[in-house]
Amino acid sequence: METTLSSLKIGEQAVITHLGCSGLLRRRIIDMGLTPGAWVTVLHRAPLGDPLEIRVRGYELSIRRAEADTIIVISE
Q: How many domains does the chain have?
């Protein structure tokens, strides 16, 4: 089932299927290692839900919810 990265719950894993953004934001997301085919795990959320802490390609990364909304994933 396709969904966005921001809608995953803590501890859920998913694989990125595609990016729903363009331009500089797309380049920034790709530079962080968030590319189609990469597995991501949601580790933590800030108290108000922004930002999310995720694990991708063996490292931990914080990402804004607005950016996570543009990343389409398929969860396990």
A: 1
Q: Strands (DSSP E) along 2-50, which ranges?
A: 2-4, 13-19, 39-45
Please tell me the pTM assigned to this model: 0.86
What residues form DSSP beta bridges with 15?
A: 39, 74
Distance, in Å, from the CA atom of 39 to the CA atom of 50, rounded to the nearest integer, reads 21
Q: What is the pLDDT of residues 18-75, one digit of tens each?
A: 998 889 999 999 999 999 999 999 999 998 878 999 999 999 999 999 999 999 999 8
Residue 25 to residue 9: CA distance in whole angstroms: 24
The residue range of the domain holding 15 is 2-75
Q: In what order do the strands lie in the sheet with 52-56?
A: 2-4, 71-75, 13-19, 39-45, 52-56, 59-63
